[in-house]
């Protein structure tokens, strides 16, 4: 590392709240949020008055609710002054920051649609382009191109939450993170991951190759202790690698899945292969890589509530639903400088889980693992909706399955689902087990019983037939006329 690079690392390290977390802290991510709330409390007479305490030595859920509402009002003021989109949005809705005093008051704020961001991304910018540090452009899972701008402070904030999340996952001095993301032209999450490791003093390595020899050699050379990447990418590399080498001999402490849904069947296969826990991390390019992080309890993801306000709504009425009930996830970025997003509709289906958690975290709300996306659902039979995560559990039923794609066609009046499956050792037994597993999914079983959906079909294809691509379409609807 050059002297200049060392100086930059030193300066950034001084700004990271992650470095204020005590080394013996049992819940680094929650403590990081408490530190952020305490700093805001210390500098804000308004927040002190709302909370009604002289200090925040112990942060309660009620305290943190007030912190979030305070940050929402502050972000609305910032957006009114600096973002053309929200200046007009709030004026048209007749809503002011001072109107937001309770959780229910959030419903007064109009939603932000992803289509608006895709159509006019620069109207969301709250800084001049001279203050812009970088831009990421992504199509995500929907195909709509969205551009997100970041200032230096935005980038440092993302590195800070990633650093806190890595501590929460259990990384310590001497550990090394192997980063497995396919190369993408729009943005590279590997850079933020590696940057967070450098700031914390952890080792890191990056390999985007599907070549199993290169992956294995880099893990050995880097003395990897933790792995992070897209679950589909990790699963593919694991499936091809596990017959060549003993993966458990590498001594991996934890595998971290991010940026795509992780099915429980895929988690089970990966845990068996690597001999360690596989935990889930949920994120969006619009908000960052570590929006929510699973703990070892593996029953919900701890959310970054210091930087984001999570709501779950009924997508039809727009009203809040209680914790535990599935609805559409809506997020507000509470501290963004460049691209401001307030009450952004993610179209993800999820639920919130009230604290405490079995891990010991006491005020942080958790996110129940998103079960699918509203804009990636397809109707079959009598209008029942199917989506990729629904099939992952059924198809990844055997360790020899590498990947799959399902095509929906129509024969007469029946919908036909044909699963093209990459399999290392195809057999009639595996085919029958996959068909039986799919047929017992409620949406499929009901369609079969109603005689509107045909028995699922499985066709094995050679390994490599499906060239790996990031955010690949798992379901392809080939019907000419459908709702």
Question: What features would you describe in this structure?
Answer:
- The chain has about 475 residues and is α/β, with parallel strands linked by helices.
- It has 2 domains: about 1-375, Rossmann fold; about 380-475, GMP Synthetase, Chain A, domain 3, CATH 3.30.300.
- Helix content is about 35%, strand content about 25%.
- It has helices at about 5-15, 30-45, 45-50, 60-80, 85-95, 115-120, 150-170, 190-200, 210-220, 230-240, 265-275, 390-395, 430-440, 440-450, and strands at about 135-140, 145-150, 175-180, 205, 225-230, 255-260, 275-285, 290-295, 300-305, 310-315, 325-335, 345-355, 365-375, 380, 385, 400-410, 415-425, 455-460, 475.
- The model has no long low-confidence stretch (mean pLDDT about 90).
Termini separation comes to 57 Å
Helical residues, percent: 25-40%
Number of domains: 2
Structural class: alpha/beta
Total number of helices? 14
Order of neighbouring strands in the sheet with most strands: 4-3-5-6-7-8-9-13-12-11-10
In short:
This protein has 483 residues and is α/β, with parallel strands linked by helices. The chain is built from 14 helices and 19 strands.
Question: What topology does this entry show?
Answer:
Blueprint: H1 3-15, H2 28-43, H3 45-51, H4 61-82, H5 84-93, H6 114-119, E1 134-138, E2 146-150, H7 152-169, E3 176-180, H8 189-200, E4 203-206, H9 212-222, E5 226-229, H10 231-241, E6 254-258, H11 264-274, E7 277-284, E8 288-294, E9 301-303, E10 308-313, E11 327-333, E12 344-353, E13 366-373, E14 378-380, E15 384-386, H12 388-395, E16 401-411, E17 414-423, H13 428-439, H14 442-449, E18 457-461, E19 475-477
Parallel strand pairs: 3-4, 3-5, 5-6, 6-7, 16-19, 17-18
Antiparallel strand pairs: 1-2, 7-8, 8-9, 9-13, 10-11, 11-12, 12-13, 14-15, 16-17
Helix pairs in contact: 2-3, 3-4, 4-5, 7-8, 9-10, 10-11, 12-13
